[in-house]
Design brief:
Number of strands: 9
Largest sheet: 6 strands, parallel
Strand content: 15-25%
Strand order of the largest sheet: 1-4-3-2-5-6
Shape: globular
Number of helices: 9
Bound molecules: adenosine monophosphate
Order of helices and strands: EHEHEHEHHHEHEHHEEE
Helix content: 25-40%
CATH class of the largest domain: Alpha Beta
Length: about 290
Amino acid sequence: MKVIRKVSEMQQLALQFKKRDKKIGFVPTMGFLHEGHQSLMQSAREESDIVVVSVFVNPLQFGPNEDFERYPRDEQRDIDTAEKNLVDVLFIPELTEMYPSEQSVSLNVSKRSNVLCGRTREGHFEGVVTVLSKLFNITLPDKVYFGMKDAQQIAVVDSLVNDLNFPIEIVPVATVRENDGLAKSSRNIYLTELERKEAKNVYQALQIGLELVIDGEKNPDIIVKEVEDFIVQNTHGTIDYVELLSYPELIQVAAINERVILAVAVQFEHARLIDNIVFDDKGLISKRI
Ligand code: AMP
């Protein structure tokens, strides 16, 4: 496995792969790699000639009061994990390599971004699409792998790729969970012992919402209320949001007659957990974009 830290070197190598007609599968991450990331790498490995993974904690997507400084980092462990998962190239640029000077061009996300996480994380999705546009131009991927855990991110990146004509296929990968259902996340290490026990109830709440739909409930307000009540009764966390919207458009629905996302964000003392499920009007889970 090659470890590359320079943008120019990564881009040159990607160009060489292209010239040799190699299909590049790309997995962008912020590191502290866990089984969720590994599932993305494995999907990329199955479908690509060359697998490129990036590790970059992107300051543009963190708000002033968020956890950029204390976001968990462990470069050596990430290198070992990538190697074990048969990654060909690990791209780990320094901050100054990605942003040598202040950006003079910015991207604006006007749809799919003012709900769910975008409601409170101002500028977050602008930061995401900016770094991804740069990474796409640096790594020249044919397919890019994203986790459904961040389903809103996939919806926004779908708009990015369509609106700006990136010749890229987005591949959504199912959320990898702990045995009790908690979605794996680099931020789970911030949970206290009690919070970790309670955190499974965030997923449990989503399951309760899904069960209602399977039983024929069509009213989003009733489902949202049941999910909220369960979280309030079974965790010490504070609900940031519980929303049920069309997917991937992320628009309010009057009744569940189409594919929707049921998504939650719960703030614990030192960790904000997000989770979601995407399903159709019969309650069948959906993974495609
Ligand atoms: P992050 O490093 O948190 O920015 O995540 C990098 C990629 O891994 C994103 O596409 C995430 O959606 C994906 N990812 C993170 N956690 C999981 C998980 N538990 N299951 C599947 N994919 C995940």
